[in-house]
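Hi support team,

I submitted a single chain yesterday and got back a structure, but I'm not sure I'm reading the token output correctly. Could someone confirm the output below corresponds to the sequence I sent? I've pasted both exactly as they appear in my results page.

Thanks,
R.
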Amino acid sequence: MVSFRYYQSGDEKGLVALWNKCLLKDPITQLRFRNLVLLDANFDPKGLRVAVEGEEIIGCVYAIRRLLPMAGTELEPETGWIPFFFIHPEFWRSGVGEKLMTDGLEFLATEGRKNVYFASYAPNYILPGIDEEAYPEGYSFLMKQDFEKQYSPVAMDRNLVGFTVPSDVLQLKEKREQEGYTFLTAEDKDLFEVIQFANNVFNPDWGRAIREGVLQGLPLQRILIARDGEKLVGFCIYGGYEGIPDRFGPFGVDPDQQGKGLGKILLHECLKNMRAEGMHGAWFLWTGEKSSAGHLYKKTGFEITRKFHVMKKTL
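Hi R., thanks for writing in. Yes, this is the structure output for that exact sequence:
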């Protein structure tokens, strides 16, 4: 007989074991589960819904809402997220998944949430959205639960074996330097400014990634900054998420400065430094395929490795 409840202490091993049985393309360790879920400041046990048969966990839907602002006092009071779900294959189409999802959505509705996203939650998202190719059953399940596709970000990778900075990029860098631009690794004196720049010009999650990355030991030589005279106009980071050195990003250039190739210079400098550290590749999870950043990545030799769908349901 299947019973339904929310997370209890001691569920972690069963949840991780079932995760790795179901989400074969995205396995997780006990440590990552602890860091990304249990130690998340927004974690609420009542949102982590589980199905149990006997002593065994056979399904899970994780619903979360913001308890701690990402920036300022903004708690996004109408928004909730489903960062992940998985059901033991033997219980597909048995009603277990539907019951878990209903319970998770009811938890969010009770907390006043009106819009629920899979899976664009920050800070601790596992994937940007559902990978239809890897998990067609999961995609169909979300569609049947009345989630609608919003947009489809892509993950990209670049092999760095044999990487060199092209001569035209070196020439462009020299030209910009003659105009008063600088491209340097960050120092302590730059940190407050680059965090505020990331927060205010781009996304509070980017500023958080920089701050928490440094707190967790991110070497400052993995943060590159561009200045126009004294003004900070761009930055580029690797190793900032979960301490994974070959994970690239975040990366951004002041919109008022675009069109000058500053992003191209920063990106190539960053990849050169990654190669100098002995890395064989660079990758990231999330960009718009047709965005200006997406075009830059493709021109720099990145290739699309996965595609995701960010899904939304209105309660």
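A quick pointer for reading it: Residues 96-110 form the longest helix (15 residues). Let us know if anything else looks off.

Best,
Support desk
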